[in-house]
Every structure is written in structure tokens, then in C-alpha cells.
Design a protein that fits this description.
By secondary structure, this protein is an alpha+beta fold. Helix content is about 25%, strand content about 30%. Bound molecules: the ligand O=C(C[C@@H]1CCCCN1)Cn1cnc2cc(Cl)c(F)cc2c1=O and magnesium ion.
Length: about 575
């Protein structure tokens, strides 16, 4: 393709609101343009990359016998009312009315849609296990879209759904999908880890996230430096064994703490470690107030609490909500004398405290020498892991220390079980002739997010660097002076012979100075650049491999073979 015909509006400067490398470079190189907050146009170069990524996904999906299809992006509210998600997914769910005043949503994901389809059309286990997938825009009204394509309000997702009549069918589909994901992420050239992920409100049991380490990543991956244990920090567990050490209980006393609100202030004021101070956080789970207690040296992990409670609606309580129920504000909260209506959860480390300090549930007052059972009834089923693991702690398997690194979630696969088939009455006759709920899995890849993840991991100071497998073009031919007959002849001859090899070629036929052409070539980052300069008269050109930034002078006759070799190592 001639670059003079290509829509690729490169910028000299980058808008200040672009904070991360992928956002800056994709704007600067003319790959994307903002339309509104969290909404982007994919210009031709980005669309070419998306096509390549999507085709790699298709190849790997088809290898595991997944059926590609496409369901509507607008969905009737009734479908989501049946699963209960119409009400529980808050402001992030785009809702609107049609001309008959009927309620619709913009699909953020499609469990209900596919489950309803199977409920209508699949009656016997003989058709199972069945895997379907689509590559489609998704809509989520994110509160704070940012970082370019990394967190948007409209994005492209590959979402797949598996249906089986028994658990082993799900296990098999989950395993096949995991294999396909490894192939996909390897082929697009990403570095990634499969980590323990939060199955969250999706129901079902375990889930696996695929996370690409990158400075711009919003997730934190916690991994052990001694084993292959790795988890999203939402789920990561540090090692702890219950002590059940007996303590001699001292007398419970109240002290005035008019100016001591935080754990640090209390621990300084009393000259005791934060681990001896109980931290109490209040949450609203569905419609109940929940008090969670950890030792003061840990943070309460909201995801672990929500999963423990299996709550649909879950949020941190506002101070006003707490004051309305307990008559006390933050800074003096504790587990002693909580009303029956408040559910108490205690982290296992806090459950082992004795003679500890806690808020007295009275403004400006704390208790000294609190002891479980004497001062607060505490049963085993309310004790668990409700803390956020800390870097440097021993990993849950007792081996190695936890190391943290930021990551971009590029995929997430879930064993859903029957959460949706029960809600939508999707049953089949099993081999014993009994009606059974379909067992499901759902499997996502953030396709547009992948594009940015590749940039985050591969770009260098000169610009984008595209792996050959997903590059918008394979080869960039840059004639230095398009007025020089030799250079034009050689450039055109190269374009013809490379294209004949099935390679996609971009030729910079613009009337620009050499410096501008070279800078733009580095910026857009095609894998191979062939500079046609003065030595064209001797049929000699310079080949540059963008990733390694190496330059090789080459005879024209060698170029086609060596370019194919240079590219195929990547394809
Ligand atoms: O999407 C998933 C699970 C899987 C991921 C793999 C492919 C199929 N879905 C989780 N999730 C995330 N954000 C959401 C946002 C909104 Cl507004 C919503 F209504 C629903 C969801 C939601 O369900
Ligand atoms: Mg996820």
C-alpha cells in the first residue's frame, strides 16, 4: 500500500491526558482517536492489528471445536431480569428504552443470551459438550475510563461459553480453553501469567485470569518467588497457621482517645504494634451491615469478604450509614457490643489476638484488653481469610515470599456451573433420561485491550514495535528520495517481489525529508524496514529489524528470502 494513500495521522506532540505509553503512542502514531471518554475509533493501522489478533483467536478457537457466532449487542431487559442481573449490576450497565418504551441494555457480557439460546434449542446431552464464541463490542459504563484502550466504555471482547451435561464436560472445555489461551497469547507475542482470579459475582467456583505484566497494569499480581503460585492480589493468600495461644485475660478497660482515630495514631499513642490493634471495617452486603475485623497491620480485602458472603450487591459502608446504625463514626469502630443485626467476620490473624485494643463503638473511646468469647462471642464459621496479602509475606503454600507486579488482565476464564442455566431453565435430558441443568463455563479475552498490552510490553523509546504475527504490515519500504530514479525503481521492484511472496508491504512514497520518514517508520513500528537510499544504484539496500533495531546492508537479490526468514521466526 502507498503511505500517501493511508489514513495514519501521526502527531508531533501527544495530548497531556494520555498518561500511559500505549495510549500516548497509539494516538501519536495515528492508530486510534478518542470520540468520547472511554470510546475510541480504530484507524486503519489499529484495525489491521485487530484483524490479525482476531484471526489468531479464531484459529485457536476453531482448533478446539468452538463455534463462532454473533448475538445482538442490544438485549431485552427481560433476559437479564430472569438472571437477576438487571437489578444487581449498578450504573455500569447501560440501560435505555426503545420507541415502545420497552427496556433494553447494551450487552456488557452475554451469559444470559447464550444460555437462553441453548435452553430453546438443546434438549439432549448428545449434542454436548458444546462451545460457542463471538468477537464483539461490549459496553460497560465505567466510572473512570482511562489509559486509552486499557479501560474503555466500549471494547472488543472474545467471549466464549461452554455447555455440558456433567462436570467432566466442563473440566474438559475449561482445559481446552486454557490451552487455546496459552497458544493465543504466545502467538501474539505477549509475556503473561495464568493466575488465580476472582470468580466474583459470576457464581461458580474457580476462575483463572491471564495477566500481562506491565507498568500500566491496573491489577496487582502477587506471585511466590519460590513456586509457581500466582494470584490476583484480590485473591492472593499469605501463609498463616492458627495459634490458639491461651492468654491470661486482663481487665477490659475504656480509655479516652479524642484525637486518635487511625490504627497508626492508636498504636503510637499506646506504644503498641499495629498488629495488636484490631481494625474494623463496615460493609453493606446485599442489605446487611457487616463488620470485618483484621489485625491493624493488614488491610481488609473486600473481594474476599464479598466472595465469602456470596453477596450480589456489596460496597464499603458510608460513615453516615454506620453512624445511623451504631451511633459512632469511623475511628472508634470495634467488635464489642455490636447490634445483633450486624454480621461480624474476623480474619484468622485477628481471631488469635488476646488482650487487644479495639474501638469502643463510642466516639473518642477505645477498649484495652479485649478478649474473644469473654467480650465478643466468636464462632469458627465467622473466622476466615479476609485480609489483603502483603509483599514479602510467606506465600500461602509456605514456600517463598510474595512478590508484587502490576499486570493487565488480558483474559479470564470461569467455571460457572449452573448459575445461569438454573435461572433461565436451560436443561437437557442426561444419559439416564433425567432433566439436568446445563453446566456452563464462560471465557473472555479483552481483544482491544490486547492491542494496548502488546504496545505496553513491546514499544521502545522510538515508538511502537509490532510482532510480525500482528503487525499492520509486514514490511515498510522507505525510499529516501522519491525523485531518484534508481531508488524508485528498486523500491517498486521490492514491493512487487515481496507482495508476490504474500507479504503485506507499506511503501513510504511521501514527499518528506528522510529524517521525517525514518522517525515515522520507527514510530509506527513495522517489523522490517527496507531503506532504499544512495546505494540503490548498486542494487544495495539496508534492512532494519525493528524489534532488535539492527541494520543489515543487503543485495537486492537476497532481500526476499532473508525478509521471509526474519519474519517467519515471529509469525
Ligand atoms: O464478564 C464477566 C464474566 C465473563 C468474562 C468472560 C466472558 C463472559 N463474561 C464479568 N463481568 C464483568 N463486568 C461486568 C459489567 C457489567 Cl455492567 C455487567 F452487567 C456484567 C459484568 C460481568 O459479568
Ligand atoms: Mg475479570
Amino acid at each position: 500500500m502507498k503511505q500517501s494513500k493511508l489514513l495514519m495521522p501521526t502527531l508531533r506532540e501527544v495530548p497531556a491526558d494520555a498518561e500511559v505509553k500505549s495510549h500516548q503512542l497509539l494516538l501519536k502514531a495515528g492508530f486510534i482517536r478518542p470520540v468520547a471518554a472511554g470510546m475510541f475509533s480504530y484507524l486503519p493501522m489499529a484495525k489491521r492489528v485487530l484483524n490479525k489478533i482476531e484471526n489468531i483467536i479464531r484459529e485457536e478457537m476453531n482448533l478446539i471445536d468452538a463455534n463462532e457466532m454473533l448475538v445482538p449487542e442490544i438485549l431485552p431487559a427481560e433476559l437479564w431480569e430472569k438472571s437477576g442481573r438487571y437489578a444487581t449490576y449498578g450504573p455500569a450497565l447501560y440501560k435505555f428504552k426503545n420507541r415502545q418504551d420497552r427496556n433494553f441494555i447494551l450487552g456488557p457480557t452475554h451469559e444470559e443470551t447464550f444460555t437462553q439460546l441453548m435452553s430453546d434449542d438443546i434438549k439432549s446431552y448428545k449434542k454436548l459438550p458444546l462451545v460457542v464464541y463471538q468477537i464483539q463490542p461490549k459496553f460497560r459504563d465505567e466510572n473512570r475510563p482511562r489509559f486509552g484502550l486499557l479501560r474503555t466504555r466500549e471494547f472488543i471482547m472474545k467471549d466464549a461459553y461452554s455447555f455440558s451435561a456433567d462436570q467432566e464436560g466442563l473440566d474438559q472445555a475449561f482445559h481446552n480453553m486454557e490451552t487455546a489461551y496459552v497458544n493465543i497469547f504466545d502467538r501474539v507475542g505477549l509475556t503473561y501469567r495464568a493466575i488465580v482470579g476472582d470468580a466474583g459475582a459470576m457464581g461458580g467456583s474457580d476462575s483463572k485470569e491471564f495477566s500481562a505484566p506491565a507498568a500500566a497494569g491496573e491489577d496487582v499480581i502477587a506471585y511466590s518467588d519460590a513456586t509457581d503460585y500466582a494470584a490476583n492480589l484480590e485473591m492472593a493468600k499469605d501463609f498463616y497457621e492458627r495459634q490458639n495461644a491461651a492468654v491470661v485475660p486482663k481487665e477490659l478497660t475504656t480509655i479516652d482517645t479524642p484525637n486518635e482515630k487511625t490504627i497508626a495514631e492508636i498504636s503510637d499513642f499506646l506504644s503498641i504494634p499495629t498488629s495488636a490493634v484490631a481494625k474494623t471495617m463496615m460493609f453493606i452486603a446485599d442489605d446487611k451491615l457487616v463488620a470485618v475485623v483484621t489485625t491493624g497491620d493488614f488491610e481488609v480485602n473486600a473481594v474476599k469478604v464479598q466472595n465469602f458472603l456470596n453477596a450480589d450487591v456489596f460496597e464499603v459502608a458510608e460513615e453516615k450509614q454506620v453512624r445511623d446504625v451504631l451511633g459512632v463514626g469511623f475511628g472508634s469502630l470495634g467488635p464489642v457490643n455490636l447490634p445483633e443485626t450486624v454480621q461480624l467476620l474476623v480474619d484468622e490473624r485477628a481471631a488469635d489476638l488476646g488482650n487487644f485494643v479495639a474501638g469502643a463503638n463510642e466516639d473518642g473511646k477505645h477498649y484495652l484488653n479485649v478478649n474473644w468469647q469473654r467480650d465478643v462471642k466468636l464462632s469458627e464459621e465467622n473466622i476466615g481469610d479476609f485480609r489483603t496479602a502483603r509483599e514479602g509475606d510467606t506465600a500461602v503454600d509456605g514456600k517463598g515470599k510474595l512478590v508484587f507486579t502490576p499486570g493487565i488482565e488480558i483474559g479470564h476464564i470461569f467455571k460457572l456451573g449452573t448459575r445461569y442455566s438454573k435461572a433461565l431453565g436451560a436443561q437437557v435430558l442426561d444419559k439416564n433420561g433425567r432433566q439436568t441443568d446445563l453446566i456452563m463455563g464462560s471465557y473472555g479475552i479483552g481483544v482491544s485491550r490486547l492491542l494496548s498490552a502488546i504496545v505496553e510490553q513491546k514499544a521502545d523509546d522510538d515508538g511502537l514495535v509490532w510482532p510480525a504475527s500482528v503487525a499492520p504490515f509486514d514490511v515498510h519500504i522507505v525510499p529516501v528520495n522519491i525523485k531518484d530514479d534508481d531508488q524508485v525503481r528498486v523500491a517498486e521492484q521490492l514491493e512487487k517481489s515481496l507482495t508476490a511472496q504474500g507479504l503485506e508491504v507499506l511503501i513510504d512514497d511521501r514527499k518528506e525529508r528522510a529524517g521525517v520518514k525514518f522517525a515515522d517508520a520507527d514510530l509506527i513500528g513495522l517489523p522490517i524496514r527496507i531503506t532504499v537510499g544512495k546505494k540503490a544504484s548498486e542494487d544495495i539496500v539496508e534492512v532494519k529489524v525493528r524489534e532488535s533495531n539492527t541494520n543489515i546492508e543487503m543485495r537486492l537479490s537476497e532481500v526476499v528470502d532473508s525478509v521471509s526468514v526474519l519474519l517467519n521466526g515471529d509469525k
